[in-house]
């Protein structure tokens, strides 16, 4: 994974029928290899960031007319010489060009190897490299914005600043070890304690941001649940603004879960319409109810829907109590408001987590969407907010926090400089793992093997 002395080649655009495909070369011989088969200008004599028209030929056989883009290192994505050939997107043409480059001395790139080289050559740090994959996989405005912010180094710059401050104190404490017999302190303990408190606040804020960051990246699991005939499927259709689920006045119509994605202000909510919760009348319905309860336990947001014209307050409170799960936010939705008189409406719950709607008449659906969005975002999303979206980063931050707590305990307990130094080094190690200051081949293999070939 770490050899950067050769030249690699791969298709950088998706396979399939299309007008144009891009074949990418990167490495010390990229320009000379491309030049050896290019009929046009001498590519070795051209300036960086220029495009040239000509043909790719295998001897006397013309494979295609192409545009060749030159990026002379270090002014390229990988900081190596990079050549991109825009050819016609025929499978035969693409395969022929790649085979020709391999015959001339290139080798097939592994998954993520172009971005790996960008990391190894100092163009990107590790968290920025991972953001490349997140940007490619982004499927909403919010996930695209978060990935782009990380790619531009917002997350990295915060962590690098923290590391630099810690490194300064670690150096002073290391110096103390050289003068251990003289019992001197070069690192002011009060200043160190203040710094650790400040870093702990930042690390804690980043850890707490993971819930939102993960929701933006992967979508928010949102279960619609309630008793049979409460209007769950009608509500799903109203939220999606299409007839996705079968609606019937017969209780128990929905026997299995139905899943759809609803995008609200750039965030994807994975809506799951479930079987009505009641004592099952047959084995199939019993399985459906069991699946409903499983989905609720796995969700981040529960939309509990009840028939406001039928349910009693006692039944309502019983349902809410039985469905509330740790870590699951619940919205209480009173449906069928069109069937209620003013006195009945006044008796319904009126809280921040409750809303009265008519799914059939699509009344207050926009207000419900706003509550769904705000329950996930909680006013945390802003243009410059750094969010953690990667479980690897979360685990490293949690270990950093644990090491910082030990540092504080050591300062208060007046432990010796050597033990204090060990805990600070642990914090530095885990922060370094995030941005790639500390890496292993196994870690790089695990990260970049998940990339697509050509990126």
Q: Would you give an account of this structure?
A:
The protein is of the alpha/beta class and 455 residues long. The protein has helices spanning 30-37, 91-103, 113-120, 126-137, 141-151, 154-178, 189-208, 210-218, 232-240, 283-298, 313-323, 342-346, 365-377, 391-412, 417-435, 441-448; strands at 8-11, 20-26, 38-39, 50-58, 61-71, 82-88, 107-108, 220-226, 258-264, 267-273, 301-307, 329-335, 354-356. The strands form two sheets. Strands 3-4-5-6-2-1-7 form a seven-stranded mixed beta sheet. A six-stranded mixed beta sheet has the order 9-10-8-11-12-13, sandwiched between helices. Strand 11, helix 11 (313-323) and strand 12 form a beta-alpha-beta unit. K(+) binds at residues 229, 248, 250, 253. Mg(2+) binds at residues 233, 254.
Distance between the termini: 14 Å
Uncertain segments: 246-255
The total tally of domains equals 3
What Rg do the Cα atoms give?
29 Å
Shape: flat
User: Would you list the SSEs in sequence order as H and E?
Assistant: EEHEEEEHEHHHHHHEHEEHEHEHEHHHH
According to DSSP, the number of beta strands is 13
Number of helices: 16
CATH topology call of the largest domain: Rossmann fold
CATH homologous superfamily designation of the largest domain: P-loop containing nucleotide triphosphate hydrolases
Identify the CATH architecture of the largest domain: 3-Layer(aba) Sandwich
Question: What's the helical proportion of residues?
Answer: 40-55%
Strand content: 15-25%
In order across it, which strands form the biggest sheet?
A: 3-4-5-6-2-1-7
Query: What is the highest CATH level, the class of the largest domain?
Result: Alpha Beta
Give the overall average pLDDT: 85
- Major pleated sheet: 7 strands, mixed
Structural class: alpha/beta
Pfam family, one: MMR_HSR1
EC number: 3.6.-.-
GO biological process, one term: tRNA wobble uridine modification
GO molecular function: GTP binding; GTPase activity; identical protein binding; metal ion binding
